[in-house]
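Troubleshooting: if your tokenizer reports a length mismatch, compare against these two reference records.
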Amino acid sequence: MKNTSLADSYLSLVDALSAVHQLSELDLEGIPETVLLQQSLFALVKHQDLENCALFLVRDERLVCAAATQKTGPLQSSPKMLGKDDLAGVSFPLGEGIIGAAFTTGTIQHCSDCISDERFKMLRDAGLFPDAGSLIAIPVKSGESVLGVLNVVHLIPGYFEYWHEHFLMLYGNCMGRFLHNHRLLHNLEEMITQRTVELEHALTESEDLRQRYQRLSTTDDLTGLHNRRYFFVEGEAMLARALRDKTAISLLLVDIDYFKRINDTWGHAIGDRVLRLIADALRIQARAGDMIARLGGEEFVLL
């Protein structure tokens, strides 16, 4: 009997170490917090003779059930993870029941008989662990900060031994550190993503401004034709090509007679409209490859 007990203890220790090892192998990158919590609970129940477990995290001054497992019958080899809809609304005040005691004191809480222990009633009323015989509530810590409470139950009253408490306390601390690191990592990723979006937005605005100023530097704002600066740069290039290819090139200067009378008689707004109408008429007559520009005032040029 003594040898059997020693062998059982050894196997339990191996299972405990396997659970911690599987927890340490979890990848923190690229997975949401909910998946991390579910994988953590699955690693625990996979390697331990436990019925169910649930993790409560602090949110809005309450302990909210963030992940939980549930066995549907004695023939089920391993518990299933409860879905988001199953956990909706399962939360308690920070100091209520056995979970609240584990959170506020930062120490492990042991319920050896869930049927008679009033501290367990809140969990039973919430529909969690209806067949529980015994329960351990372990504070999930990161340093001195309590992030939540891990609850582990078994059907048999008084099932948990002293070594269970030590192992589960270790597991809760590991979960707390992993959860803390996951949040730091994903907060950093969100910050990088936000800064990247802001940088891309700034670069887009900068490019828009560059194109706008480039247009303003080469385009007459009133008529939409090329301006004097553009004409002398591009006109010189057109002339050079004509000389190189020995092709004809024509230059037409257009000056509006008595334009000052238009401004003096009907005002500058009408004068601007006349300039735009003349620009449109020249634009209609131009061919592909021709260049039209406004040299200034009422003077236009076609090349």
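Reference record two:
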Amino acid sequence: MAFGVMVKLDVTGSMGSIPEYLIREKLGTLMESLIAHGINDAQILFGAIGDHYSDRYPLQVGQFESGTDELNKWLSSIYLESGGGGQNRESYSLAWLFAARHTSMDCFEKRGQKGILFTIGDEGNHPVLEADRLKDLMGYSTSEDITDAAILAEAQRTFHVFHIHIEEGSCGHDSNVISYWKKALGERMIICKDKTQVAELIASTVAVIHGIDLDTLQKHSTLKLQLM
């Protein structure tokens, strides 16, 4: 019985060449990584986030797929805008908004099984999605300001929400950024010291969520997991 895995990648300038590397070299093999970790029934949705103040395309979304060719099609469609507002903050909460209010998954609606959402980036989050920007970006006829905490709580009703913090990004060692994510997500904020490990890190996390024994998993993994 399939379940959803949503992966949203920060494609702003502070990430440098990392988004292009992940798209070309790592995320395209995520399905194979999941299968190697004992997960055979995932459907993956790839997308991207930017800055809802300054970018033309701060939210990019694909659709859930289970085939490698279909997933690579969506990956290759991601626009690497390389923008951002230069404030050590981006609009990761748009990924939460999309997950909470614009995603339909049989795994949750029919079986009560949550999906798993990963954002990947190196910066903190804007504290508010303003009503006027939501009207422009999402086409809402009416709206109100939404705080990051409020929309995160909404997303967590249907998704296990994680953030992978990339240390190799421009803001990777910013203590304020790290503190923000630790406060927001606790142990579900995962620090990634090596971008080459992103696909395995996602796959290992999904495996732990789905009950694969952690000791057994670590015997076959180059990662030292400290989840849950």
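Descriptive notes for reference record two:
- Residues 149 and 184 are 8 Å apart (CA to CA).
- The chain is about 35% helix and 20% strand.
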